[in-house]
Design brief:
Blueprint lengths: L21 E5 L18 E7 L1 E5 L6 E11 L5 E3 L6 H21 L11 E3 L4 E4 L9 E7 L8 H4 L4 E12 L9 H10 L1 H4 L4 E4 L2 E4 L4 E3 L2 E13 L5 E14 L2 E2 H8 L11 H9 L3 E4 L7 E3 L2 E6 L4 E2 L4 E2 H9 L9 E6 L5 E5 L3 E3 L12 H11 L3 H15 L6 H6 L8 E7 L4 E3 L3 E5 L17 E10 L3 H17 L3 E9 L5 H15 L3 E6 L4 H12 L2 E5 L9 H14 L6 E3 L2 H7 L5 H6 L2 E8 L10 E8 L6 E9 L8 H19 L5 E7 L6 H19 L2 H4 L7 E8 L6 E2 L11 H4 L5 E4 L7 E5 L11 E9 L5 H10 L15 H19 L11 H15 L13
Parallel strand pairs: 27-28, 27-29, 29-30, 32-35, 35-36
Antiparallel strand pairs: 1-26, 2-24, 2-37, 3-14, 4-5, 4-7, 4-9, 6-7, 8-9, 10-11, 11-13, 12-13, 13-14, 15-23, 16-17, 16-23, 18-21, 19-20, 21-22, 24-38, 25-26, 25-31, 32-33, 33-34, 36-40, 38-39, 39-40
């Protein structure tokens, strides 16, 4: 589902407000110290938090032997062919259930070979198989003939009409469960064992690592919300201890119903579904959906390939000279109720296309709902239903733990040697000091991690705009001009200088037309900022794409915001506007309370950030449909306040680590150039925040850091940077991930059941260290969770080169940078450079999707692929690097 946005359409706007608890004081200068002055940073407080997992002991686990078990059959050429699989929920579910029965048939038919009376057997119903006893009598591989038995609905697509298939068992080696390995062999085995009983139960469906209970049913619109969870195993500080992490999930599934009924409810019954744009909307909603034929006794399952542009009565079947509607009437006696509707298209063997009327198809219920199928109104309801405040999270953890059988009394887990504790795992925690927020002449001393931007506060650097063009989209000139006049007063009050302002109705929202219109205004009036009011489909993305070709920064205020400007909304709009126009909203200092605890007058932030460039690199978690291109965003600070003032993105083939040096070169060169332009010196230190996955091998990130350092050495030796005395900077490389399942919870009895999610969640700045096996990893919750349960950042200090920052100082700076997003008056979940890098990667995705670029050929070489991606970056990313401002704000 799309990311929820604030009313102003921002990705960080203020959507929740209450009076902040902070003190506004006159701004005063603070001294700059060295890193050694902050080797020990006291916290505000210490306490206990609870992790959503159950501790267990590794030494209780039995030694296991690993095998690969695959089911296959011989094709026409006599080659082994595995049971086909498609990355579709319903098909994967049916395949998994079939393999489960085949596995049971295998064990029943060969009990002595599998020691079924004495051995503990664990199988993931795909290919990982484990046994507590050594099988195969010393052989490496053996084949078994397995009876198929009676097939269930939809399973013939895997085995056809075969009565027997072949099972191939191959020995891999023994599993050293207690040992930590790069490929997580022991953890993978334990995770498989924990899910074994649910794998054998058709009530549960497995979707990309998550398990959902098909028997739960909370109807929402045409769909049904299902409860589920995701489990994984992590190793704790004590080498003998592990944690079974269980995170409850909720997601939307289809209900079983006839496809024509679903379409009739979704669209008006008298709508022409073959006409544009409804035909495109219908195609987007149904393409990829798994359906079942219901017009004959043999019911067949397939995935919708397309939706026809013509009706069932007008599509003529090759060789029969009859329409689809006539064919179904003659062959099956089915008179279509809606012959004017289009048909579903199935793509079969050899690319053969088959056409089916909607009335003869049924939606299979074991599949999640596509984002494109959810209307905006329904999306809000779904987001609300899926959010779990901490108290609800506790309840669902216990419910899902019961379904998963996570208990000492579970006989199967006892046979494996897994004995989880009864209670969730409690750990020590502490709360870090927030920074002080600095404006032009005032400072906010925070005690509630949120603050107000009042009439007494002024931007540190108000922007200067030569000509501001107001653009009316689906609203009248008068309404647009009135909105502009309302804003003009506040723009002036905040110190932003606008020399000229004019208004124009946008009559043509085609990308090329908007580019020509903006260029015309730029050439005639010197337009350097476009502020658009109103909305229509895809307008936002097209407006942003104009920046590439015009060099004019844009801002979009969506229609819902226009229903009465409130002060908080105006503040949000102007904060974005000031950043986009090269202004600086705020700085950060050290609070008086923290200075007292440190017994110093040195400002933590400026002591670290003076001479330091903070670099963020991350990818977007939105996928482009063709799946052949990925985007990395990067952002950089250029001030001693940690203000993010420059950034961009580049395209690459995949997201594997390390990133190809040729791609990274674009980001490094641009970042260094921006920093040197702003400071006239080469950075003495670089703090590198890398978005990614903690499961990726540390060695891969170290290679990436090595490549980063290699490029820095090349730059240092160029004439340009030699002339300013450049030398290799110290580096601190921190991996930050929110792609995990761990939550930090207040102890259950400490939570007020009537409290809001903000009060039920842990306090912003909560830090947990020295819990995981890797001593360089820590959890931190910098932000305020307004809905649901806060997802902490799992950070890992990968490496430090040169003069390392003390750990306490690096952790504190990581927390403080979460207060520097400058668009909202509360902390974000990630440090500002990394948050901006994510936003820029998302912008790169949107700009690519809005443009017209052909897909890569499958036979392209590595060299031509690199050139192709560099070509796309040159066209869509490089022009934006000329901006020395937060154009993406």
């Amino acid at each position: 589902m799309r990311r929820a946005r604030s009313l102003s359409g921002s990705r960080g706007g203020v959507s929740y407000r209450r009076p902040s608890v902070c003190a506004t004081i006159s701004r005063s200068a603070q001294n700059i110290g060295t890193a050694d002055d902050f080797s020990n940073i006291p916290a505000i407080s210490t306490g206990k938090v609870v992790l959503n997992g159950y501790r267990f002991l590794f030494n209780d686990l039995k030694t296991m032997y690993q095998y690969v078990l695959k089911f296959s059959y011989k094709d026409r050429e006599g080659k082994d062919k595995e049971l086909p699989n498609k990355n579709k929920d319903a098909i994967s579910h049916r395949r998994r259930q079939l393999i489960g029965r085949l596995f049971q048939n295998l064990i029943d038919n060969y009990p002595d070979d599998f020691h079924s009376n004495s051995a503990v057997l664990v199988y993931d119903h795909n290919w990982n198989f484990y046994s507590s006893e050594l099988l195969l009598d010393g052989q490496d591989k053996r084949r078994f003939q397995v009876p198929v038995g009676e097939l269930q609905e939809g399973e013939s697509m895997f085995v056809g009409r075969r009565t027997n298939i072949e099972a191939v068992l191959t020995f891999v080696g023994d599993v050293k469960v207690a040992e930590e390995t790069d490929d997580r062999t022991g953890e993978t085995y334990i995770e498989t064992a924990l899910s074994q009983q649910q794998l054998q139960n058709p009530r549960f469906i497995f979707c990309r690592g998550k398990i959902f209970d098909l028997d739960t049913d909370f109807p929402i619109g045409l769909f049904s919300l299902k409860n589920g969870h995701q489990k994984n195993v992590i190793r704790l500080k004590n080498p003998n201890e592990g944690l079974i992490v269980l995170d409850p999930k909720r997601t939307l599934f289809h209900q079983q119903c006839c496809l024509d009924l679903f379409v009739d409810r979704r669209f008006q019954s008298n709508a022409d579904l073959t006409a544009h744009p409804l035909n495109d909307i219908l195609r987007s909603a149904l393409k990829g959906l798994t359906v079942l034929t219901i017009h004959r006794q043999y019911r067949r399952m397939f995935v919708i390939h397309d939706i026809s542009a013509d009706s069932a009565s007008s599509i003529i079947i090759d060789g029969l000279n009859r329409s689809i509607s006539d064919y179904f009437a003659d062959r099956y006696g089915i008179v279509l109720k809606r012959p004017d509707w289009p048909c579903v298209v199935e793509k079969g063997m050899g690319g053969h296309l088959s056409y089916f009327p909607f009335e003869v198809l049924q939606i299979v219920k074991e599949q999640r709902v596509f984002r494109s199928e959810i209307s905006n109104g329904l999306e809000t309801e779904v987001i609300k239903a899926c959010q779990m405040a901490p108290l609800k999270k506790y309840e669902l953890i216990y419910n899902e733990s019961t379904k998963a059988g996570l208990s000492r009394n579970n006989n199967f887990l006892r046979s494996v040697g897994i004995s989880p504790e009864d209670d969730l795992f409690g750990v020590n925690s502490k709360v870090l000091h927030p920074p002080a927020i600095e404006y032009g002449s005032t400072v906010k001393e925070l005690s509630d991690h949120v603050w107000d931007f009042s009439s007494n506060d002024h931007y540190i650097k108000p922007a200067r705009i030569h000509h501001l063009l107001l653009l009316a989209v689906n609203i009248s000139y008068e309404v647009c001009n009135d909105l502009g006049q309302q804003l003009k007063h506040f723009i002036s009050m905040n110190g932003i200088a606008v020399n000229q302002m004019s208004c124009q109705v946008c009559t043509d929202t085609d990308l090329d037309a908007m580019v020509q219109m903006i260029l015309g205004k730029k050439n005639s009036n010197g337009t350097d900022f476009v502020l658009a009011f109103g909305n229509e489909p895809r307008f936002h993305d097209k407006l942003k794409a104009t920046e590439i070709r015009t060099g004019v920064v844009t801002q979009h205020v969506m229609t819902p915001t226009l229903n009465g400007f409130k002060r908080n909304t105006i503040n949000n709009i102007l904060m974005k506007l000031n950043l986009k126009a090269a202004g600086v909203n705020q700085g950060m200092g050290t609070s008086g309370r923290q200075l007292d605890s440190l017994r110093t007058s040195f400002d933590i932030n400026k002591s670290v950030l003076t001479g330091t460039m903070v670099f963020g690199l991350s990818t977007s978690h939105t996928r482009i449909e063709n799946g052949q291109i990925n985007v990395y965003g990067f952002a950089v600070t250029t001030t001693n306040n940690g203000n993010v003032t420059h950034g961009g993105y580049f395209y690459c083939q995949d997201l594997s680590v390390p990133i190809h040096p040729e791609y990274m070169k674009i980001a490094i060169d641009s970042a260094i150039q921006a920093y040197v332009e702003a400071n006239k010196i080469f950075p003495r230190r670089i703090i590198f925040y890398r978005g990614g996955y903690v499961t990726t091998k540390t060695s891969a990130y170290n290679i990436e850091l090595f490549n980063f350092g290699t490029r820095l050495k090349e730059l240092v030796n160029t004439t340009t940077y030699k002339n300013i005395g450049a030398s290799i900077p110290s580096m601190d490389f921190i991996l930050c991930s929110r792609q995990h399942n761990i939550r930090l919870l207040q102890p259950y009895r400490s939570i007020n059941p009537t409290g809001s999610p903000v009060t039920q969640n842990v306090v912003p700045g909560t830090l947990v260290e020295n819990v995981l096996r890797n001593p360089n990893q820590f959890f931190i919750v910098p932000h305020r969770a307004l809905i649901g349960t806060a997802r902490p950042v799992l950070a890992e200090i990968i490496a430090q080169k040169g003069l390392p920052l003390p750990r306490d100082l690096l952790v504190q700076i990581t927390n403080n940078l979460c207060y520097m997003h400058e668009i909202c008056t509360s902390p974000t979940a990630l440090p500002a450079p990394l948050k901006s890098a994510e936003e820029l990667a998302d912008r790169g995705h949107r700009n690519y999707s809005t443009g017209d670029f052909s897909e890569l050929s499958s036979d392209a070489t590595e060299g031509t692929r690199t050139a192709h991606f560099n070509e796309i970056t040159e066209a869509l990313g490089t022009p934006l690097l000329a901006f020395r401002k937060r154009f993406w704000a």
